[in-house]
């Protein structure tokens, strides 16, 4: 298969970017999108040209590192990660536009690689559970209903790729943040910090420069894990709960929970 590629090239964060046209030929239809870029880079390097920078790691749809906007869609035409997008998904001889995930909070490192550490900082702001020493309780001593377990695990499958942010017209990170809050706040281990976790994570999300949610729903439609919009509703409820339970500035520490 042969393709014309319009690839975003940017030398560094502060440099102006531009699309560059190149062609790839004799690509195996069963090759993944990243394998096609590998073949392109081998040709560029052998010709003395600079390779195209892009992120990847596991290449099994697990880590969320691969982050490309392909023909205007985060990760490509199917609701999977970029590494699980195959060249057979495109018409032979077609033109493919390749861009990085675009958001104020995702600065371009080079070409198609962006810095998504803002998502890590949101987790760090409140995404933890208390750890105690000494004997731990029997897990069976804290029964969890099947429905709660299902909701928590459905949220826990978020891989933090950032496709939801790239797809949102507002550049919101509500689906990501909602998934993390839902996962931790539903389980018994997350209860000690439940009252403040959502408040802190939302504050961190706003500080990073992400936009607000207005229920477009594009985030859920491109999520490779199929996380639903219900986690955003959960985040809103938990945030209101956290604000109500927030102690007054002069309240004694014992009133913090």
Automatic annotation (TrEMBL):
Whether Secreted counts among this entry's keywords is: no
Q: Which Pfam families does the UniProt record give? A: Fer2_3 (PF13085), Fer4_7 (PF12838)
Record PANTHER family: SUCCINATE DEHYDROGENASE (PTHR11921:SF41), SUCCINATE DEHYDROGENASE IRON-SULFUR PROTEIN (PTHR11921)
Main enzyme class: oxidoreductase
Alphabetical list of InterPro entries matching this protein: 2Fe-2S_ferredoxin-like_sf, 2Fe-2S_ferredoxin-type, 2Fe2S_fd_BS, 4Fe4S_Fe-S-bd, 4Fe4S_Fe_S_CS, Beta-grasp_dom_sf, Helical_ferredxn, SDH/FRD_Iron-Sulfur
Family, per entry:
Belongs to the succinate dehydrogenase/fumarate reductase iron-sulfur protein family.
Cofactor: how and how many bound: Binds 1 [2Fe-2S] cluster.
State the needed cofactors, names only: [2Fe-2S] cluster; [3Fe-4S] cluster; [4Fe-4S] cluster
Q: Where is each 2Fe-2S ferredoxin-type domain found?
A: 3-102
Q: What is this protein called?
A: Succinate dehydrogenase iron-sulfur subunit
Species this chain originates from:
Patulibacter brassicae
* Gene3D superfamilies noted in UniProt: 3.10.20.30, Alpha-helical ferredoxin
The EC number(s) given in the record are 1.3.5.1
Reactions catalysed, as given in the entry: a quinone + succinate = fumarate + a quinol
């Amino acid at each position: 298969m042969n393709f014309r590629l319009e690839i975003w090239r940017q030398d560094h964060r502060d440099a102006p970017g531009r699309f560059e046209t190149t062609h790839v030929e004799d690509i195996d239809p069963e090759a993944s999108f990243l394998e096609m870029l590998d073949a392109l880079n081998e040709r560029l390097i052998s010709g003395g040209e600079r390779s195209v920078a892009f992120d990847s790691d596991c290449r099994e749809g697990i880590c969320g590192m691969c982050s490309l906007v392909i023909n205007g869609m985060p990760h490509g035409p199917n609701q999977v990660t970029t590494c699980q997008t195959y060249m057979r998904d495109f018409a032979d001889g077609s033109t493919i536009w390749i861009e990085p995930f675009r958001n104020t909070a995702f600065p371009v490192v080079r070409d198609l690689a962006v810095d998504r550490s803002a998502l890590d900082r949101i987790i760090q702001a409140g995404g933890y559970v208390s750890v105690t020493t000494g004997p731990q309780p029997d897990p069976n001593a804290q029964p969890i209903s099947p429905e709660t377990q299902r909701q928590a695990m459905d949220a826990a499958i978020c891989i933090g790729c950032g496709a939801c942010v790239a797809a949102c017209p507002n550049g919101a990170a509500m689906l990501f943040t909602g998934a993390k809050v839902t996962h931790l706040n539903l389980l018994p281990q997350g209860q000690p910090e439940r009252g403040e976790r959502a408040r802190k994570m939302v504050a961190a999300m706003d500080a990073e420069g992400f936009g607000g949610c207005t229920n477009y729903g594009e985030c859920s439609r491109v999520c490779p894990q199929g996380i639903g919009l219900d986690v955003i509703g959960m985040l809103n409820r938990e945030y209101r709960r956290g604000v109500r339970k927030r102690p007054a500035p002069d309240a004694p520490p014992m009133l913090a929970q």
